[in-house]
Automatic annotation (TrEMBL):
Species: Chloropsis hardwickii
PANTHER family: MONOCARBOXYLATE TRANSPORTER, MONOCARBOXYLATE TRANSPORTER 14
Annotated protein name in UniProt: MOT14 protein
Membrane topology: Multi-pass membrane protein
Alphabetical UniProt keywords: Membrane, Transmembrane, Transmembrane helix
Length: 515
């Protein structure tokens, strides 16, 4: 574990105190419209992640309607959840070119279209395309902007803000489960999906609330982060030749590109001014040319930022700690999803169905999960607490619970472990904060897109893998043991890489001192 924030090189402190040049606080950062962004993100989590956690209601209807195997039918839900996260890197490209607001509005329309088209499904394979792919991509186009916008609007209280917004997942699980049950009972599953599609159009409203920060606001926050990054580089050394993936080395090329863009637009404006005396048709052509030029430059700039984040000199993958974070994400999410999928069967095997019907274990996880996100967010925002240490402690607690859950054969024992799983999994609200501290606000969309893509792969293949292990062993014990051990491997990567970075930093400092 790390005793201080400087050990890992994160800027977890109050950034407004860093630097000699005083910066006037902006009302849009950590206050004002920032809380509307939290509300928007909260509603997005209810409508997207909450709906996905309630798909068990529709899954039973699909089994009865289409008479297909449980494994094949379950892929509809898995595709929807997996694709929502897996498309993250590509949604990052949309955000770079179009911005969070436009991306979210388009995603809301696409998500609603997926629900509505699924109401006319004639077989399970039709649902793969309409619900799994179409609604899944739409969900991803709204989910990532919702997380990124909270990161942009908050500096001091990022963990709390992310914690509050992501509690929508827990609330949504209850609300959407009750809503879908009622709609299916009263109107049938097809009409229920049609109505849910109409409800999902509210995602467009949530997207409209994602008002982009002005360039001045972004510059002020960027200055604050740059001041703190000077302290970060002393502890976590990336050589100036090897890139820090916060875009520092990419500033000069970007400045040159912006200058070239301004020159192009300036020449167009000059031609437009000179041609005012010309005919109306030529003026219309000039305006059209100017609009196309501006659009082309915006697309080029967005694609350039996206490309440089993944493949350029300032690639995110040159940050070894971030790469370790990706490896961790590949194993982490399935350890949270597997209990939700297989707990009902475990309860049935242990003859605990009567107690579980009174208060389901999955409900215990969901309820405590809500409180875990908020409490861990509040703790992480304390000046004397390292978010990185809170994140690691929560991970250690969760992996311990996953490994010990099969040993519990009483309802009380399972309930205690499930409560700990729910609370410790509240670290999900810290993931965007840790990601932003690693790569900076500028690359948050692309970096977090990679992280949720890894989570999506984990969610897509984790539960089927656990089911495959059960088919071989006829026990769920080994599913939890293997998932827990793989999860532990990911945590070890998180521990090793910062230690290596710290050692390399000390060796480099020693060499420079000797020279």
């Amino acid at each position: 574990m790390y005793a201080s924030r400087e050990d890992i090189g994160y800027d977890f402190g109050d950034d407004s105190k860093v630097g000699s040049k005083p910066i006037k606080p902006n009302p849009n950062i950590d206050g004002g419209w920032a809380w509307m962004i939290v509300l928007s993100s909260f509603l997005v989590h209810i409508l997207i992640m909450g709906s996905q956690m309630a798909l068990g209601v529709l899954n039973m209807e699909w089994l009865e309607e289409f008479n297909q195997s449980r494994g094949l039918t379950a892929w509809v839900s898995s595709l929807s959840m997996g694709i929502t996260l897996i498309v993250g890197p590509f949604i990052g490209l949309f955000i770079s070119m179009c911005g969070c607001r436009t991306t979210a509005i388009i995603g809301g329309i696409l998500n609603a279209l997926g629900w509505i088209l699924s109401a006319y499904a004639s077989n399970v394979h039709y649902l793969f395309l309409t619900f799994g792919v179409t609604a899944g991509i739409g969900s991803g186009m709204v989910y990532l902007p919702a997380v990124v916008m909270v990161g942009q609007y908050f500096q001091k209280r990022r963990a709390l803000a992310q914690g509050l917004s992501t509690t929508g997942t827990g609330f949504g699980a209850f609300l959407m489960t009750a809503l879908l049950k009622y709609l299916c009972t009263e109107f049938g599953w097809r009409n229920a999906m049609f109505i849910q599609g109409a409800v999902s159009l509210n995602l467009c409203v949530c997207g409209a609330l994602m008002r982009p920060l002005s360039p001045k606001d972004l510059r002020e926050k960027h200055v604050v982060r740059n001041d703190s990054e000077e302290n970060r580089s002393k502890a976590l050394s990336h050589s100036t030749e090897t890139v820090k993936s916060n875009g520092v080395l990419g500033e000069e090329p970007e400045k040159k590109e912006e200058a070239a863009n301004e020159e192009v637009l300036g020449s167009v404006q000059h031609i437009e001014i000179g041609g005012k005396s010309g005919s109306g048709r030529s003026m219309y052509g000039l305006r059209l040319f100017k609009t196309v030029s501006q659009l082309t430059l915006t697309v080029r700039k967005g694609f350039g930022l996206w490309y440089s984040s993944y493949f350029g000199a300032a690639s995110l993958f040159t940050n070894r700690v971030f790469v370790a974070f990706i490896i961790w994400a590949l194993f982490a999410y399935s350890s949270f999803v597997i209990p939700f999928i297989h707990l009902p069967e475990i309860v049935k095997q242990y003859n605990l169905s009567r107690q579980d019907n009174v208060f389901p274990l999955t409900s215990i996880i969901a309820i405590v999960h809500i409180f875990g996100k908020v409490i861990l967010g509040i703790i992480s925002d304390l000046p004397c607490i390292s978010t990185w240490n809170v994140f690691l402690m929560a991970n250690f607690t969760l992996v311990t619970c996953i490994l010990t859950l099969p040993l519990m054969q009483t309802y009380i024992g399972l309930a205690v472990v499930c409560a700990l799983i729910g609370f410790s999994s509240g670290y999900f609200s810290l993931m965007p904060v840790v990601t932003e501290d690693l790569v900076g606000t500028k690359h948050l969309a692309n970096a977090y897109g990679i992280i949720i893509c890894a989570n999506g792969i984990s969610a897509l293949f984790g539960p089927p893998f656990a089911g495959w292990i059960y088919d071989i062993t006829q026990k769920y014990d080994f599913s939890f043991y293997i998932a827990g051990l793989l999860y532990m491997v990911g945590i070890i990567f998180l521990l090793i890489q910062p230690c290596i970075q710290k050692k390399q930093s000390r060796e480099k400092s020693t060499e420079e001192a000797q020279v």
